[in-house]
Write the structure tokens for this entry.
Amino acid sequence: MTTRLTQLLGIEHPIIQGGMIWCSGWELAAAVSNTGGLGTLGSGSMYPDELRAQLAALRSATDRPFAVNIPMLYPNIEEHLQSCIDFDVPVVITSAGNPKLHTAWLKERGRTVLHVVASSAFAVKAEAAGVDAVIAEGFEAGGHNGRDETTTMVLVPAVVDAVSIPVVAAGGIADGRSMAAALMLGAEGVQMGSRFVATPEASAHEAFKGEVLSAGEGSTQLTLKELAPVRLLKNPFYAEVAAAYARGAQAEELAALLGRGRAKKGMREGDLVDGELEIGQVAARINELKPAADVVRETAQMCEALLRRGT
Amino acid sequence: MTTRLTQLLGIEHPIIQGGMIWCSGWELAAAVSNTGGLGTLGSGSMYPDELRAQLAALRSATDRPFAVNIPMLYPNIEEHLQSCIDFDVPVVITSAGNPKLHTAWLKERGRTVLHVVASSAFAVKAEAAGVDAVIAEGFEAGGHNGRDETTTMVLVPAVVDAVSIPVVAAGGIADGRSMAAALMLGAEGVQMGSRFVATPEASAHEAFKGEVLSAGEGSTQLTLKELAPVRLLKNPFYAEVAAAYARGAQAEELAALLGRGRAKKGMREGDLVDGELEIGQVAARINELKPAADVVRETAQMCEALLRRGT
């Protein structure tokens, strides 16, 4: 399948594996890139030394294009950006921040730059900042998210109408059906996160993967909008957050409750009670652990079959 | 376009105009049915006499199939159901209640019954109750909605996998692109509400229609989950609701704030300050008033063209 996205990135299938903290190390990225998608290292959970070690490992595991996701709300951004140059990372995906800050610097150094947006207004700003494509991420997506709650079904065609660069759809996509739907909305590719958490290659704790497989409709919630909005599983930690809201807690109290290291505790260390477990709504549709290569192949094949059949 | 839904309902295009309180009287339903879709009277805002007057007018305005939507959380349900028999209404769409209550009674009297659901668990219950099809309505939809917040992109394929009867997608659908996306998700038709509010035939107040046209991303919010969850425009009335939540208001206080008649005040009488203005997120993508017949024709044509082209 050829779209402007496959041409831009030099990939076979217009499928990007989302960069996710504590879940997407070099093993997952290599498996996706080697199957013709775009694998992505999630640098948000990595110290600079760790990102460089991961880049070295990924470089030796694939000669296909891959990406690094840099959520600009985390520290170490400058060092991470420099590592992307040092290791000749072909694609940098920026998120959770202003695309004006680093896009020109990256473009001058020959990188392809994608930026994640949750509204068409930010998509227009990203295009003006010079990014090569935008990833339009809907309300149903896991992890950090926008404040407007606009869903993929509404957001993607709005962004497609607002910019002329390629648009990648994210949020709620986990198979060929949802990929075909995204392409009908005008996207030229998809980014999937949650689906790739439920793979043997994901670096997440096995207990967290188990929770993803058993999640149903209504198992996740977008919350903590006063800090940085995030979608997570409704585990006991979330119950504490909900109780805080119910008694009218303000941002300061919520920040103290969240504390530091909750995401690592949950997703990396497998603490299902006190940890923060970030995942998308589409976990409800993910019921088996599957090798990342199979995810890429099966998704692309089903999508192409549906588009050919036209129903 | 032929699907099991067009065959079940005897319509040309698999497009249902959603029944919406204060917005969908006989003029809108007739325009949609006469163009080959399924027009629907929204009985939730009608006293029994009014529904009968509307049915008489609709009967003389079209000889094509049409529906009555009966939200079971409103009073007068028994009389409304009897009117559907008296006026030989071909299709009854039930929502906001238990499908076990009335489905058998309606089926024994030869009606085709559709039920609106917001989860696959309720879809399974509706199928077991004997309904002919389910309408799977996502979080982005306007008006009354489910508690789980599952979006159309996630909900529709989940419901398609859970039942064997036809599934209609609702929530976020306003044109051929979103209709084609819904069909790729496995739906056999779509229900559109917000798009039909912005038509000359809708019985809503012109001032409310103007607000729908000027709405952008983030202009609506799902709220009042402690009463009956509803998506509405963020007008000054909503600001009062948000302020009540911020000070930790409980259900009783929220019910008192909502009071009675807010929806009529807003949508029928055009009070944009104190009225309740129910609309879907997709209002952000609706920017012109358009005859209902054009909506049906253009949506079907664009959808078919996209499915033929396969991208």
